[in-house]
Amino acid sequence: MLPSIERPKKLPVVLSHSEIKQLLKTPKLLKHRLVLAMLYGCGLRCFELRNLQLKDLDFDRRMLHIRQGKGRKDRYVPLADLQIRGLKKYIAAENPSVWCFTGNDKHGNPVALSTRGVQWIVREARKHSGINKEITTHSLRHSYATHLLEMGLDIMSVKDLLGHADIQTTLTYLHVAQLGRQKPFSPLERLYNKK
Going residue by residue through the chain (195 aa), what tens digit of pLDDT does each one get? Predict the structure, then answer.
């Protein structure tokens, strides 16, 4: 009898750089563009985005403090100048008091944005962007990790930025990142385009 072979896990959906740009510019509301920019630009999990408070934004140090992420661990991730400009503009216009991104409860009182609210923003952006890939809130986190590796950041730094307890979780991204001395290619490319 043959030993059973463990079935490979599904690889994460990763968006290309141009798909990320397309997705980020799709929503009309600044708040919705920022939600997408925070999920991708900081590699946030959905609940981490929902729990973001104004006190977690450190514009001087260009850092975001993620409190009590998965495994109840805190971590810091860098903020891009683009995010900081957008956040300052958004905060000045919307004037949130505690949470960065709010929704309303059934009585119209501001509360932290719901999971369904975040998922709706991502789903609507995908629908109107013309991108055919299945995109979830976590796809943006997968894209963050993969793009950082492709841009030359080391695996241990990516592990820390993602807040992973185990390096094995982070190693998944090595399967989807296009790394190495030579970028992978299809033999068909060389067959018809001899160099």
Answer: 655 555 457 788 999 999 999 999 999 999 999 999 999 999 999 999 999 999 999 999 999 999 876 667 899 999 999 999 999 999 999 999 999 999 888 888 888 899 999 999 999 999 999 999 999 999 999 999 999 999 999 999 999 999 998 888 888 888 788 776 566 667 767 777 665
Respond yes or no: is residue 67 known to be catalytic: no
Q: Which residues pair with 66 in a beta bridge?
A: 75
β-partners of residue 63 are 58, 78
| Entry pTM | 0.86
Which CATH number describes the domain made up of 17-181? 1.10.443.10
Catalytic residue among 40, 90, 144, 173: 173
- Cβ distance 78 to 95 under 8 Å? no
